[in-house]
Design brief:
Layout lengths: L2 H18 L5 H8 L5 H22 L10 E2 H18 L3 H9 L6 H22 L7 E3 L3 H5 L3 H21 L3
Antiparallel strand pairs: 1-2
Helix pairs in contact: 3-8, 5-6
């Protein structure tokens, strides 16, 4: 199977999971931002644990190679704030906006247009950003297992256990 076809099938499968998890709903997005509904956070934490196990298993088996991006604090902080503002303003993140459009929720088109405008502005500003924001706090290509000096297989169970405890707490609070 070709890589584009595998990517398409994976995207369709992930979109179906987003839809089945009900995280495409605007009220779920707003509930997450108001800390009243943790459905989206539960979904994300589950995806992180599954992804950690899956990627590291593929790397361990030699079926994939890990490609870690450089950690740049300035870019991460500013990008995170812009992402959060866009999500709070539109009520959708990039994945959920496309999923909502696929469900026929046409108001999510505004979020998609915002992403296109934002990407265009970033591309235009990139030459300036490359010598400023994109150099602030460059920590290199680091991972938590590297920082701790251990194998990822020692970190994954701790992270997974922490997430399970957090998910249990959310359930106890009926979030």
């Amino acid at each position: 199977m070709s890589e584009p076809m595998l990517g398409l099938l994976t995207g369709v499968f992930f979109g179906a999971l987003l839809q089945q998890g009900r995280v495409l709903r605007f009220e779920k997005q707003v509930g997450a931002m108001l800390l009243r509904d943790m459905t989206i956070l539960k979904f994300m934490l589950t995806a992180i644990v599954v992804g950690m196990v899956g990627v590291n298993l593929l790397v361990s088996l030699g079926a994939a190679a890990m490609s870690v991006k450089t950690t740049i604090l300035g870019a991460n902080l500013i990008g995170g704030v812009l992402f959060g503002l866009g999500w709070a303003f539109m009520g959708f993140c990039p994945g959920t906006s496309l999923g909502a459009i696929a469900e026929g929720r046409w108001h999510a088109v505004w979020a998609l247009l915002g992403m296109i405008v934002g990407a265009t502005l970033f591309a235009e500003a990139y030459p300036v950003l490359q010598d400023t924001v994109l150099t602030w706090g460059n920590l290199g290509k680091i991972t938590l297992p590297q920082v701790l000096g251990v194998t990822p297989w020692l970190v994954i169970p701790g992270v997974a256990a922490g997430f399970v405890l957090l998910l249990g707490w959310f359930e106890k609070l009926d979030l």
